[in-house]
Amino acid sequence: MPVVPQLFPGVSMPGRKGEAAVREVQRFLRQWDRSGSAGRTRMLAAFVAQNAGSTGPELEQRLAHMASLLLARVHAWMRLHYTCGTCLGVQLRSVGVFLSAPSNHSYLTEFLEVGGVFTILDIINHKQTSDGDKREALHLLQAIANAGRTYKELICESLGLPVIAKCLGKSKVEETQEAAVTLLQSLAHGNPKHKNHIYMELISLLSCTSTKTQQLVLQTLCIVQKTLNSAHSSILEPLFNLLKSLSSEVQYEALQLIRMLKGYEVIPALLKGLVTLLKPKTERIQKNDMLEDPENITVTEEFPAFIQQAAAARAIRMLSQESQEMSDELLRQGVVHHLLCAMGNQNHADAQKQASLALEQFVRVYPVVKEHVRKAMGSTLFNLFVHNAEVLHMKMDEIQVDILLSNKVNISEVLKEPPH
To answer: Is there a domain that residue 7 lies in?
Structure first.
């Protein structure tokens, strides 16, 4: 078992105890220099076990004011051999003892002066690094970022953002995903110089395939967006695409981000996009055809568009309930016509239900909408709609469905007419 220097309370004072501590640390460092990978790994494992959670002054006392010598040795060994991966975990954890220690400024400075940030980023970016080791490396960057704005800027200016984003986008392990997104969120806070760059990296991550990452990125974007004076238009397309998600968590977070964007200049394009999604660009499939011969239709290709259609209707209802101004703009965008069409989509009951509930909101608020919808539906269907919009889709016949799909309602033209 390797010998690790123990705490000597009086090491800062001259005397036998101080001299003994110095000799013990020197013996420890000589043992390190003579040992191979296996021996050093055991020494570091013992060091981490004994010193995790120690403060900077405690490490100095324990290592007889020679802690920096050990940190330098660990970094040099890690820098030279991280591609091997066999000892990387304990190397990272031992560096973490120094960087996460309260009152660690001297260790942090020394680590950065020898290129520590670049080493960590290289480790994260290395294809062969395990997910667990990447997570430990992310924790080290987090410890550096926690030291303040200057250190956040250093990570960003060391090209750290694309490396962290790439790690987040490719990882399939939830703990690593959370570590990466927490780091990005931390880097954005109190870092005005690089906040917009972080924001754009987050937007690019909306296109990743991991459901968990999508959820985490949407949550983080909501937080970061609050601190920005503008929203970038490139956020809309990937946000709309996430409305196709089968994950209720992703759908929820996407709706929260849509709600967040209502105060920004992208809102006209956002509303127009939501209205457009109510009429998916797919060939109409007869419900009976789906039941009789499901092998001959591309349900798998169209189903995400129907999920998206339902989510768009849900978002429209949410926004119209929260703002008269947005309701007016939605009417100008032709939302009533599109909602009626969505109500006729017999291939997806939730899309019908959400569209019906959204239309109900407009009918309640706008008498002119009520009148046009009544004329378009006919009295029988309209009475069913007014009685219970949520279950209307279960009570319609084929003729009524065709009426909805072929409706010509154009409220936007009515709104343009001058008052009489």
So the answer is: no
Angstrom distance (rounded) from CA 153 to CA 408: 56
CA distance 307 to 364: 26
Q: What whole-number distance in Å separates Cα of residue 226 and Cα of residue 206? A: 18
What's the pLDDT tens digit per position in 139-180?
Answer: 999 999 999 999 999 999 999 999 999 999 999 999 999 999
DSSP 247: -
Q: Over range 346-374, report the average pLDDT.
A: 96
Domain count, the chain: 1
- C-alpha distances (whole Å) from 293 to each of 12, 42, 284, 285 are 85, 65, 15, 11
Q: Mean of the per-residue pLDDT values for the chain?
A: 90
Instruction: Mention every residue, 6+ apart, whose C-beta is less than 8 A from residue 60.
Output: 67
Distance CA 122, CA 105 (A): 23
Q: Which domain holds residue 308?
A: 282-420
Q: Is residue 109 scored above 80 in pLDDT? A: yes
For residue 363, tell me if it sits in a domain. yes
Q: Which CA distances in Å does 39 have to 43, 87, 98, 118, 349?
A: 6, 11, 21, 26, 65
* pLDDT of 420: 38
- Other Cβ atoms less than 10 A from the Cβ of 155: the count is 24
Considering the chain, what percentage of its residues have pLDDT values greater than 70?
A: 89
6 secondary structure, DSSP code: P
Distance CA 242, CA 224 (A): 19
Q: Which two tokens stand for residue 418?
A: 């001058």
Measured distance CA(325)–CA(275) in Å, rounded? 16
Count of H helices and E strands in the chain? Answer: 25, 0
In a domain, 385, yes or no: yes
pLDDT tens by residue, 282-312: 644 444 444 444 444 444 568 999 999 999 9
CB–CB of 111/75 below 8 Å? Answer: yes
- Measured in residues, the chain has a length of 420
Question: 0.70 cut: is pTM over it?
Answer: yes
**How far, in Å, CA of 48 to CA of 51, rounded?**
5
Integer Cα distance of 6 and 50 in angstroms: 9
